Amino acid sequence: MWLTRFMHSFARARAGAASVEFALLAPIILTMFIGTYEVTNLIRARMRFDTTAPTLASLVSQQSPTASGGTMTADFCTGVAYTLAPYSTSGLTAEVQSVTNTSGTNAVDWTKDCGSFSGGQSATTLASALVPSSGDSVIVVQTAYTFTPKFHFLLGSSFTFTTAGYARPRRNKTIAYAP
Predict the structure, then answer these.
(1) Using CA atoms, how far apart are residues 144 and 164, in angstroms rounded to an integer?
(2) Mean per-residue pLDDT pooled into runs of 10, the chain (179 residues)
(3) What pLDDT does residue 71 have?
(4) Cα(113)–Cα(75) distance, rounded to whole angstroms?
(5) Where are the domains of the chain?
(6) Residue 147 phi/psi, 5° resolution?
(7) Helices (H), 13-171
(8) Element (H, E) at 4
(9) What is the SS3 assignment for 122?
(10) 159-167 β-sheet, strand order
């Protein structure tokens, strides 16, 4: 009988129930909040990264076709890195190539890098549909970016994105030297 009364009083007691419910739900709510923050940051970083290759291709395609002996200026690489703001640009690399169709054969005229880009696809393959006629030229840019989230216990420690961008030279058929 004593045990039955104790069980009824225990079942009716509500003191501290809110604290127990909060203690059970707080880790779940906190995990959902941080997870939402991480996924949102990852999506925003990817969206910003997707503009890097077309932007760099556009910058290079506007250069004078007859400039001689140039080098890929740090300004182009820095300018493209600004498109990732406010994210870190330390993991951004790019490869810029000029591809020209000469008598039906696509060939790379020159190649320049921002950082140490590796693992990209063949520029002649990427440009094959873009230079159908002899004398056509296109700037092919491939970029890679390693994004590291601030909190990485939910999604992982890093993500690597890659993309390509294309632009036709604007002042002539071919940019003879890398700007």
Answers:
(1) 9
(2) 71 72 90 90 94 92 66 78 89 91 88 86 86 87 91 81 91 74
(3) 58
(4) 13
(5) 26-167
(6) -100, 130
(7) 17-49, 52-61, 74-82, 123-126
(8) helix 2-12
(9) coil
(10) 105-114, 92-102, 137-147, 159-167
Three-state DSSP state, 84 = coil
Tokens linked to 109? 């005229």
Query: Residues with Cβ < 8 Å from 39, sequence gap 6 or more?
Result: 155
Q: Which helix (H) or strand (E) holds 11?
A: helix 2-12
CA–CA gap between residue 169 and residue 8 (Å, rounded):
84
**Confidence at residue 138, expressed as pLDDT on a 0 to 100 scale:** 92
d(CA 175, CA 162): 25
pLDDT at 162: 93
Could you list the beta-strand ranges (E) of 125-158: 137-147
What is the torsional sign of CA 161, 80, 84, 88?
A: positive
pLDDT at res. 67: 55
